[in-house]
């Protein structure tokens, strides 16, 4: 089946540590979508010390929200990229305010919003043992999904790092901001009939439900 580029216009939404990146990586393996993670885009600017990276480094470090305008244009650039073989996009971490949702709506309105509803106490434990490969954004967890070799990325062998904003104070700030922004954003997408909620504490149980939802939403057959 050829859906044509742009048919899957999905967003994955949830609290910090709810498993957006983890579930997104599985979706990308099973469906031909472009994964656009706002956090990965920002972290790459910060580590390359671009002009923009320098401006936002301190905000991201303490778990604040970066200004929407600049971030939105960076996301737009990613959305405009024509990636060969790809049949849509999956936005992860964007939008997270009503302002951003409005910008995206005018650009490419999402037709599915996957909401991961994971309890906060589960999240706090997970984030403590998260490690990432900064080059690719690949995510590990010392308990849930450890790397094959301690401290090293499975594919490149490069060193893994912990995120600067995974320190307890920053995590708390991120959770607070999430609590302020989430409800209006969920209402926005609920009104538009595109919101699908997944409740749980284990990504391995949530993912099969998400998989089923995607195949049903886009009427994909097995040979997709
Ligand atoms: P990010 O990068 O978008 P957050 O805070 O929204 O950051 P985060 O922390 O990346 O979200 P996640 O992607 O939802 O979390 O979760 P994950 O990484 O997949 O999973 C967390 C950990 O749990 C991992 O170690 C994973 O292996 C493990 N895990 C997953 N499933 C399970 C499970 O079932 N069991 C167990 N035990 N473990 C599991 O944004 C970062 C910053 O960038 C700025 C902000 O400053 C933000 O704080 N930013 C924006 N600012 C303004 N507007 C925006 N739209 C912005 N987007 C980013
Ligand atoms: Mg993430």
Automatic annotation (TrEMBL):
Its EC number is 2.7.4.10. GTP binds at residues 17-22, 130, 139-140, 203. InterPro entries: Adenyl_kin_sub (IPR006259), Adenylat/UMP-CMP_kin (IPR000850), Adenylat_kinase_CS (IPR033690), Adenylate_kinase_lid-dom (IPR007862), ADK_active_lid_dom_sf (IPR036193), AK3/Ak4_mitochondrial (IPR028586), P-loop_NTPase (IPR027417). Gene3D superfamilies: P-loop containing nucleotide triphosphate hydrolases. Residues 129-166 are annotated as: LID. AMP binds at residues 38, 43, 64-66, 100, 163, 174. Belongs to the adenylate kinase family. AK3 subfamily. Involved in maintaining the homeostasis of cellular nucleotides by catalyzing the interconversion of nucleoside phosphates. Has GTP:AMP phosphotransferase and ITP:AMP phosphotransferase activities. Consists of three domains, a large central CORE domain and two small peripheral domains, NMPbind and LID, which undergo movements during catalysis. The LID domain closes over the site of phosphoryl transfer upon GTP binding. Assembling and dissambling the active center during each catalytic cycle provides an effective means to prevent GTP hydrolysis. This is GTP:AMP phosphotransferase, mitochondrial. It comes from Orchesella dallaii. The lineage of its organism: Eukaryota, Metazoa, Ecdysozoa, Arthropoda, Hexapoda.
């Amino acid at each position: 089946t050829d859906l044509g580029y742009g048919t899957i216009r999905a967003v994955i939404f949830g609290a910090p540590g709810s498993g957006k990146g983890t579930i997104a990586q599985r979706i990308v393996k099973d469906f031909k979508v472009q994964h656009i993670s706002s956090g990965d885009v920002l972290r790459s600017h910060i580590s390359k010390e671009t002009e923009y990276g320098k401006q936002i480094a301190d905000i991201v470090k303490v778990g604040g929200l970066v200004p929407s305008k600049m971030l939105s244009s960076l996301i737009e650039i990613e959305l405009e990229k024509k990636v060969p073989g790809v049949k849509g996009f999956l936005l992860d971490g964007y939008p997270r305010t009503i302002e951003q949702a409005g910008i995206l709506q005018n650009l490419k309105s999402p037709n599915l919003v996957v909401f991961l509803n994971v309890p906060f106490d589960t999240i706090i434990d997970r984030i403590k043992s998260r490690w990432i490969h900064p080059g690719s954004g690949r995510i590990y967890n010392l308990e849930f999904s450890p790397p094959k070799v301690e401290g090293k990325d499975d594919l490149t062998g490069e060193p893994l790092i912990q995120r600067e904003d995974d320190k307890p104070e920053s995590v708390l700030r991120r959770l607070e901001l999430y609590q302020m922004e989430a409800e209006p954003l969920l209402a926005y997408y609920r009104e538009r009939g595109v919101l699908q909620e997944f409740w749980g504490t284990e990504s391995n149980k949530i993912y099969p439900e998400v998989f089923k939802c995607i195949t049903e939403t886009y009427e994909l057959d097995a040979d997709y």
